[in-house]
Amino acid sequence: TPIGDDTYHSKNSSDNLLKKRRLYKEQSPLIEWKLIKELGDGAFGKVYQAFNEQRKEHAAAKIIEDCTDDELPEHTIEIDILSECNHQNIIGFYDSYYHEKKLYIFLEYCTYGAVDNIMTTLEHGLDEKQICFIGYEILEALDYLHTHQFVIHRDVKASNILLTQTGQVKLADFGVSAKNSYQDQKRNEYIGTVY
């Protein structure tokens, strides 16, 4: 059973792929989604490339294992934020499931992955033009988040900036983000990645 609405969500008028759904319980996502290969892992879980045969779409499946009912609310902030976002530079949200103590979040698949991995593969940094392009696109995403959603990302870094097959820049990983009540609300916590 879905929690929340199941309304249409689109990045733009020509994109009919993304659906706005909340959290499904008591249903295995592996009925609809096939996990293809592991893409990476982080502090909260692993990410897999997944495919939905019925919809004919690929996704990145973020899986958080051993997630108790008590821990669920702290992990669903990402679902809440992404299901309300509608911007070309923010990772798209497909589905989420909580099944057998695992939280599954299915997101837009970005073929080229994270900017930090791209730089490692190329064995050099980005040139000034590339940095300006990526920076501008991320600023567009942040402006949308701050102005329209009252969201503070709190962990903007190269590993959370992804590139699609067409070169579209996407801001991802909203796991430590905060949703404010109003636009200029201040936060006192220091959260994110320390270098």
TrEMBL record:
Pfam families: Pkinase. PANTHER family: PROTEIN KINASE DOMAIN-CONTAINING PROTEIN. ATP binds at K62. Keywords: ATP-binding, Kinase, Nucleotide-binding, Serine/threonine-protein kinase, Transferase. PROSITE patterns: PROTEIN_KINASE_ATP (PS00107), PROTEIN_KINASE_DOM (PS50011), PROTEIN_KINASE_ST (PS00108). Residues 33-195 form the Protein kinase domain. Belongs to the protein kinase superfamily. It comes from Rotaria magnacalcarata. InterPro entries: Kinase-like_dom_sf, Prot_kinase_dom, Protein_kinase_ATP_BS, Ser/Thr_kinase_AS, STE20_Ser/Thr_Kinases. One of its GO terms (molecular function) is protein serine/threonine kinase activity. This is Protein kinase domain-containing protein.
